[in-house]
Amino acid sequence: MEVSNKKITSPLFTFLFISAIFIQCFTFVSSIGVNYGTLGNNLPPPSQVAQFLKDKTLIDKIKIFDVNPDILRAFANTGISVTVTVPNGEIPKLLDIGYAKSYVEANIKPFYPQTKIDVIAIGNEILHWETPEVQNKLVPAMRTFYQALTQSGINTIKVSTPHSLGILLSSNPPSMARFRPGWDVGILQPMLQFLRETKGPFMVNPYPYFGYNPQQVDFLLFRQNPGVFDKFSKRMYTNMFDMLLDAVYMSMKRLGYDDVEIIAAETGWPSLGESFEPQCTVENAASYNGGLLRKYVTGAGTPLMPHRKIETYIFDLFNENSKTGSNAERNFGLFRPDFTPVYNIGIMKGQPLLPMPVQPKPLPQPALPQPQQPRAPRNRAKPGPMLPTQPGPKLPAQPLPKPAAPMGKKFCMPKPQATDAQLQASLDWACTNQGVDCGPVQAGGPCFNPNTVRSHAAFVMNSYYQIKGRNDINCDFSGSAVIVFADPSYGTCKYLS
Questions:
Q1: In whole angstroms, how far apart are CA 104 and each of 24, 82, 107, 120, 299?
Q2: Using omega within 30 degrees of 0 as the cis cutoff, is the peptide bond preceding 450 cis?
Q3: Tens-place pLDDT, residues 199-228
Q4: What is the pTM of this model?
């Protein structure tokens, strides 16, 4: 039979060709992840949540902060992927393979594979919140838990752990970013080796919100802006989210692990806050999360990872009225407890995404100041202690890198509603083995007067914040402190900046 050299133009071929294109495109517009926190006394039952997400939204991945059996049972046979979290307190016990296997038998196997559990997070932000003793047990616990899964016949679930971006010594510009000394080769390198071996993801929590500066608001919120130029990589950035992810990527690359997948495990923006949190508005939350959703579903990567689609989980599904901290902590939700959207960003099926801002051709700009990072632990089964019971991790002394082209100084101050008891506890902690010079607030020091707890705490909080690298993660003090832009120095009392 003679074979024609004419192009195939049959209707079937045309249909298959168009279908292939549609399917390829559809994968970029079908889903987004969300953190499903449960610190509220008015939240709907998990069964209703699962049905709502499946029927009404683009959300096809959730991340929970425990191993809640009601949630795992509710999401069975929905096709929605679930990331579960083993509480921080379990880490020391998970070094025992027998305990790890019993944990898997009790908390994972009864629900798998009916519930599509794809990642198990061992703890949450361990390097930020836990003692060095627990930090050093994290990677061995991850390995033992993975071994327990495989010995139980489960070989499709990945094991990882989320990090705040306090793991970075520097992140600005992204091309010069690196992990903190001590953690880099002591914990993060063996962790990345484990993730490479098991094809697990490196989970990070990038929050442009915590680096809020009114001078940079459009850059933070995915709005039209002139862009920021990294002179070392020759890359232009149009939003802070990309800068933070590329800083993580470069830090991994310096250790030789740029091939490990990155997941943005938490990121979001609150729609309501206190009077001292003017950035917390419905408009800003819609702009940030709408821009994030638009970026995700269009499959855009970052300047240093142009071909990667970063799996992303918005924080949070619901406003949670039982959370501690400022009002902002209770208003990160995309939805109210009755399932009505707090704002529309196109996350409901059949709704359009927010339109893309028209970006002019950007001119090279200096890099932004050091991006700031989160300061409060996310959902746990129970709220954590108000203040650290032990000193935070002591890192090797290093000269702190100066942010390129600062656009305004930042200071760490007590919140107006912080009590003297909270401030005294923060003062005592910061002045104990944290490297802070508290001499200026002692009798005879230039900052002793006025002799009040609030005045002394303000100086010491700011000193701690400045010497630790000006990350907002270091201006938390159990929710009693806040970043301000006005220099609080007075008389002979000069605040570090």
A1: 36, 15, 5, 11, 35
A2: yes
A3: 999 999 999 998 888 889 999 999 999 999
A4: 0.73
- Quick one: which H or E segment has residue 286? helix 282-297
By the 8 A CB rule, do 487 and 495 touch? yes
- Report the SS3 class of residue 236: strand
pLDDT at 391 over 80: no
- Measuring CA to CA, which residue among 270, 285, 283, 284 is closest to residue 326? 270
CA end-to-end distance (rounded Å), the chain: 83
Sign of the torsion formed by the C-alpha atoms of 91, 96, 101 and 102: negative
Catalytic residue among 90, 266, 320, 329: 266
pLDDT in tens, 419-452: 888 888 888 888 876 778 888 988 888 998 888 8
Greatest extent of the chain over all pairs of C-alpha atoms, in Å: 104
Q: Quick check: is 130 catalytic?
A: no
CA angle 361, 363, 366 (to 5 degrees): 145
Residue 283 Cα distances to 7, 163, 270, 327, 496, angstroms: 52, 28, 10, 17, 34
- Identify whether 303 is preceded by a cis peptide bond (ω within 30 of 0): no
* H-helix or E-strand spanning residue 165: none
Query: Is cis: bond before 352, omega within 30 of 0?
Result: no
Q: Which of 2, 90, 105, 125 is catalytic?
A: 125
Integer Cα distance of 405 and 51 in angstroms: 49
Of 178-192, 340-354, 388-402, 470-484, minimum mean pLDDT range:
388-402
* Residue 311 among the catalytic residues: no
Orientation of helix 132-151 relative to helix 189-198, angle to 10°: 10
Q: Is the dihedral of CA 71, 75, 76, 82 positive or negative?
A: negative
Kind of pairing between the strands at 178-179 and 168-170: antiparallel
Output the CA–CA distances (angstroms, integers) from residue 97 to 42, 121, 134, 148, 467, in the order listed: 39, 17, 17, 6, 41
| Residue 223: half-sphere exposure toward Cβ, Cα within 13 Å | 13
Is the dihedral angle over the CA atoms 333, 336, 341, 343 positive or is it negative?
Answer: negative
Beta pairing partners, 263: 203, 311
Q: Is the pLDDT of residue 481 over 90?
A: no
The per-residue pLDDT of the chain, averaged, comes to 84
| SS3 (DSSP) at 212 | coil
The structure tokens listed for 33 are: 């992840």
